[in-house]
Amino acid sequence: MTSAVSEEPAKKRILVIEDEPDIVRGLRDALEFEGFEVQARGTGTEGLTAAMEWGPDAVLLDLMLPDDNGYRVCETLRQRDETVPIIILTAKAQETDKIRGLDAGADDYVTKPFSVAELIARINAIFRRQARMAHSDETFTIGGWQINARKHMMSRGRTSKRLTFYELEVLKLLRYKSE
Amino acid sequence: MRRILVVNALIFAVLAAAVALAYYGYTATSIESQEQQVLQPLRELAEEKVFNIENLLLRDERVVFDNVRFEELSKLDEVVNPVATAVASVFVLDDQGKLVPDGYVGPRSRKPAESKAFRDFVLEKVVPTLPLSKRPAGERGHVHGIWREGPLAGRPYLLSFVKRVSGDRTFYVLIEDDLTHLVAWLFPQFFNVSDVSKRIYQVVDERGELVFGAPFAADADTLVVEVPFSETVDGWRLRVTDRQMLGQGALRRKGIIQSVLIGGAVTVVIAGLAFLALAIRRERRANELKSEFISNVSHELKTPLSIISMFGEMLANGRVKGPDQATEYAEIIWRESVRLGRLIDNVLDFAKIERGMGVYEFADADVGEVVDRAIELVGRRLAAAEMTLDAEIEPDLPQVKLDQNAFTLAVLNLIDNAIKYAAEGKKIELRLARAGDRIALRVRDWGPGIDPAEQEQIFERFYRARAVRLKPIRGSGIGLALVRHIAKAHGGDVTVTSAPGQGSTFELWLPVV
User: Fold this and answer.
1) Where are the beta strands (DSSP E) in B371-410?
2) What CATH code is assigned to B1-248?
3) Within 10 A of B148 (CB to CB), how many other CB atoms are there?
4) Which of A16, A22, A114 to mutate: most B Cβ within 10 Å?
5) Is the Cβ–Cβ distance between A84 and A57 less than 8 Å?
6) Using CA atoms, how far apart are residues B369 and A104, in angstroms rounded to an integer?
7) DSSP letter assigned to residue A69
8) Which of A58, A112, B188, B467 would be a feasible disulfide site paired with B306, CB 3.0-4.6 Å?
9) How far apart are CA A151 and CA A162, in angstroms?
10) pLDDT of A29
C-alpha cells in the first residue's frame, strides 16, 4: 500500500475539470488510489476559480465543457500560471485539435477512450520532469539581466518583467550556447 | 469560403448571361425590328416604282420643255401630241405670264368649247398664282391639286412649268399633265393588281381616297408602306402591303409569342438559379449540422466507451477498494453499455432512414402494449435520474398498423429526452388516448421548456437547441428527427407545445384507420 505516511511529502494535488460525472468518478477513484489529492469541477468557470484558490500541482482538462470552450479555459489557465502542468483529456482526436490544444499551452494531450494506467504514467512523467527542472539552475545572468527560471522573471535594477515559457527557453538556449 | 465565393460568382455570372441573352433575344425579335425586316424591302420596292413612274412623266414633260421653239409655235402641236403622251395641254407664256399667239395646244379628246373654257380659266385664274419667275431658267416647277372651280372643278391636276431663255427673250412653258394617262396607262404597267400577286398596291390622293388599285382594309395590325409622288402628283401616295400581312397582325402575334417564350425561359433560368442557391444553402447548412453531428456522435460514443474502458481497466487491474466498489463499477459499465447500445441503434436507424431504405414493417398492433413495454425499458434510467413517470393509457384502444420496433424507438426517445433535459422537473406525465380519428401520445415534462424560435428546428436532423448545447448533456441531434420521421411514416406527426420555464409537451399522434 502507498497510503500516506506523515513523514512523506504532501500529496500532489490534481484538479479535474470535466462535466461527465462518471468520468469524474473514475478519475477521482483512480488518482486517489495512486495517492493524489483530487478535486473536480464541472464547468470552465468553476475550474478556473478552483485553480486559483486551491493551487493544484496539475490540471486535467476536458475540451467540451458546457459553459466555455476548453481551449480558452486552457489559455486562461496558462496566462494565470506559467508552470502548472495541464493535460487535456478529450474525445477530440483529430491532429488539428491536438495541435490547437498544445498551442493553447497544454503540456500533454490524451484522447478518450484512454487507459488509466497510461494517464497516470503521463502525470507522473510530468511531475518527474518538473522535479528535474526545479533542481536545475534557477537563476542566471544575460547582458546584465537577472533571469529567474523558476519564477519566469527577468530583472535589472528596479525593472522586472515576466517571461513566457518560450522566451525563457530561448534565454536558456542562449546561455547554454555562450558557455 | 473560397468555394462559396466561386459558387456565388458563378450564379451571378449565369444570371447576368441569362439577362443579357434575354435582352438581345428581345431586341432581335421585338416587333419593331421584325417590322423593319418586313417593311424595308417593301419600302425599297415602292420607292423604285414611284421613281420609275415619275421618270416617265418627267421624260414626257422634258420632251415638250426642250423642244418648244418660240420661233416655231405653229409647230407646237407636232411637238406635243405625237411623243408626249403624258402631256395633256401646253401653254407658252411670255415673261409677263401672258399667252403668246399660237402658244396653246389642248388635248384632242377635249371638245373645243371645253378646251377654250379651260384655257381661259388657267390663264386668268391659275397662272397669276404660279411662282413662275421664282425659279432659275430651265428648272422645273410643279403644282398639284384639285380644281376648285372652272370647267374641270373637282378633278385633280398637275401643272409643270419651266422658264426658258432664248436669246434675249424669256418665256415660260406650262404643261398640264394628263392624269388620266397616268392612272389608266402608267399605273397598270407598274402595279400588278391580280389577286395572286404577293404585294398589294394602291394609290390614294391627299384626302385618302383611292385613285388606283385595290381597296384593302388597313387596320392597325397591317404593315403598310407609303411613298409620296413628290416630284409630280405630290398629294398622292403609293401604298404597298404584303398580302400575308393583310389584316392578320401575324407579325405582332409572332413577336408577342416570342417575347413570352423568352420571358418564360429567363424566368425558368432565374427560378432555377434561385432554387439552386437555396439548395446550396440548405445543403451547406445540412453539412454544417452533419459535421456537428459527427462531432456530437463521436463524443457521444467515446464518452460511454471511455467510462466502460476506464472502469473495466480499474477492475481488471484490481484498483478497487473492495467488493462493493467493484459491483458499483460493474453497474456503471453495464449502464453505459446499454446507453451505448441505444445510441448505436439510433444512429444506425437514422442512417437507414437517411438512405431511404424501406425500413418499416407494418403490422396490426396494440399501441397501449407497445407504450407499456417502452415504459418498462426506461425504468432504470428514471430511477437513476430520480424521476417518476405518471402514465395513463386508455384501455381498449383500437388496433393500428405499426412498426413496433420503430414506434418503441420513438416513444423511448421522447421519454429519454424528458429524462435527459427535464430531470429537475422530477416527473414525467405520459398519456395515451384516442382523440377523434387519432391516437395521441402526450409526454409532458416540467423542465426548462423550449424557446419558441427553436420549437420547429428541434425536429430537424442534427439540430440541438441552444440551451441544451450549453449544458453537460450528451446528445447527437437525431432523436427528435427520428421521432418525426417515424411518426410521418405511420401517417401521423409529432408536435411540441412549450414555453420557457413551463416545461414541454410532445404529442405524437397516429391516425386510426
Assistant:
1) 388-393, 400-402
2) 3.30.450
3) 8
4) A22
5) yes
6) 54
7) B
8) A112
9) 8
10) 93
| Cα B432 to Cα B414: distance, rounded to the nearest angstrom | 13
Contact A42 B302 (CB under 8 A): no
Domains of chain B by residue range: 1-248, 360-511
Query: What is the C-alpha to C-alpha distance for residues B123 and A107, in angstroms, rounded to an integer?
Result: 128
DSSP code per residue over B38-83: HHHHHHHHHHHHHHHHHHHHHHHHHHHHHH--GGGGGGHHHHHTTT
ipTM of the complex: 0.73
Task: Give residue B217's region: left, alpha or beta (phi > 0; psi -120 to 50).
Answer: beta
Distances (CA, A) of B82 to B87, B107, B438: 10, 11, 111
Q: Does B314 touch chain A (CB under 8 A)?
A: yes
Which residues, 6+ apart, have CB-to-CB distance to B234 below 8 Å? B142, B144, B228
Residue B504 has pLDDT above 90, yes or no: yes
CATH H-level superfamily of A13-133 = Response regulator (3.40.50.2300)
Listed in sequence order, the residues at least 6 apart from B208 whose beta carbon sits closer than 8 Å to its beta carbon are none
Residues of B in contact with A62 (CB under 8 A): none
What cell numbers appear for B344 in the block?
448505436
Question: Is the per-residue pLDDT at A4 higher than 50?
Answer: no
Which residues of A fall within a CB distance of 8 Å from B474? Answer: 20
Render pLDDT for B386-408 as a digit per residue (tens, 0 to 9). 899 999 999 888 888 888 888 88
C-alpha cell at position A26: 473514475
Mark yes or no for CB contact A64/B299 under 8 Å.
Answer: yes
Q: What is the pLDDT of residues B157-202, one digit of tens each?
A: 899 999 888 888 888 999 988 888 888 888 888 887 776 778 888 8
Domain spans in chain A, listed from the N-terminal domain onward: 13-133, 136-178
* B327-334: long-range contacts, CB 8 A cutoff, minimum separation 24: B332/A22, B332/A25, B332/A26, B332/B307, B333/B307, B333/B308
Please give the residue that has the higher pLDDT: either A179 or B271.
B271
Rg (alpha carbons) of chain B, rounded to whole number: 52
Asked if residue B151 lies in contact with residue B117, where contact means CB atoms within 8 angstroms, the answer is yes
| Residues 6 or more apart in contact with residue B45 via CB below 8 angstroms | B199, B240
User: Which chain A residue is nearest to residue B299, measuring alpha carbons?
Assistant: A91
Q: Among B292, B297, B302, B321, which would you mutate to test the A interface (most chain A Cβ atoms within 10 Å of its Cβ)?
A: B302
Torsion A152-A155-A161-A165 (CA) sign: negative
pLDDT at residue A32 in the model? 93
Residue B416 has pLDDT above 80, yes or no: yes
> How close does chain B come to A75, measured CA to CA in Å?
20
How far apart CA B54 and CA B58 sit, in angstroms, is: 6
Say which CATH class B360-511 falls into.
alpha beta
Q: How far apart are CA B111 and CA B151, in angstroms?
A: 12
What does the angle CA B402 – CA B407 – CA B409 come to, to the nearest 5 degrees?
Answer: 155
For residue range B211-253, list pLDDT tens digits in order: 888 777 655 556 788 899 988 988 899 988 877 665 555 666 7
Q: In angstroms, what is the C-alpha Rg of chain A?
A: 18
